[in-house]
Amino acid sequence: MEELLKKYYRPKLPHMWCPGCGNGIVTAAIVKAIDKLGLDQDKTTIVSGIGCSSRAPGYLHFDTLHTAHGRALPFATGIKLAKPDHKVIVISGDGDATAIGGNHFIHAARRNIDITLIVYNNNIYGMTGGQYSPLTPHMAKATTAPYGNVDRAFDLAQLAKGAGATFVARSTTYHAKQLSELVAKAILHEGFSVVEAMTGCPISFGRQNKMAKPAALLAWQRDNTITVEAAAKLNPEQVAGKILIGLLHEEAAPEYVTEYAKVIKQAMGGER
Fold it and tell me: What is the annotated signal peptide range for this record (predicted)?
């Protein structure tokens, strides 16, 4: 672990995350995946928007961008088009990715551009005061929903698949090893890949929903999820109410940068 710290992290400790926050676990899962794949740090770019999770690139020793709220994917798209040989990883929170950045999310998926998006889903706007997000569960409490959130939450995996993402996976901070393995697979996938990382926010979400202790949030993840493989062996009644984790969707489709390069070649007088 000490070698990973020296190689992949900038010396900026202590970090800004609250005690018990799961964002460090997710960030470590990403770093371990990068190390496992042996990616070139000089050809790996990490981009984020605004939010608790979006502070992660500031601690990571790569070319990194900390961009505008909800706009990480447009910046990442520009990087990938300019540097198609680079691995581009986007770190975003549930609000950053699916509220103000929701339009960018669905169109990045539709284009199937070779970018890996890791969504740190803590079910809340943690940095700005604990407001509910598009991924806050139905009737969960937030500062802007003190009697419970009446909105239905997006199913992020289904949203990504429906919009055209060709790799969709989900895991949790309780299942940290599985999470890192899924991130590695997502990075290797050619096309738009989405990994939902369910993480706990004991301060802004936990305190309002009777899970103020970090261990309680981890126990909730353990008790309310089921792997795709385990679910396949059970009947629908036994799986009801459980959240599926693992590789949820994968397909092959034309990749945006590759297709765009063909258009440029044609416009420059090449093959028609």
Answer: none
Q: What is the DSSP string of 74-119?
A: HHHHHHHHH-TTSEEEEEEEHHHHHTTTHHHHHHHHHHT-S-EEEE
- The radius of gyration of the chain from alpha carbons, rounded to an integer in Å, stands at 19
Digit-coded pLDDT (tens) for 144-202: 999 999 999 999 999 999 999 999 999 999 999 999 999 999 999 999 999 999 999 99
Picking from 112, 120, 115, 60, the residue whose alpha carbon sits closest to that of residue 90 is 115
- Integer Cα distance of 101 and 220 in angstroms: 28
- Are 51 and 58 spatial neighbours (Cβ–Cβ below 8 Å)? no
Distance of CA 5 to the CA centre of its chain: 22
Taking only the tens place, the pLDDT of each residue in 242-264 is: 999 999 999 999 999 999 999 99
In the predicted model, what is the mean pLDDT of residues 205-233? 96
Closest C-alpha to 142, from 211, 205, 202, 203: 205
Query: What count of residues does the chain have?
Result: 272
Cα–Cα distance measured from residue 38 to residue 177, given in angstroms and rounded to the nearest whole number: 17
Q: Which amino acid is at 127?
A: M
Which two three-digit tokens encode residue 268?
């420059």
Q: What are phi and psi for residue 159, nearest 5 degrees?
A: -60, -45
Return phi, psi of residue 61, to 5°: -90, 70
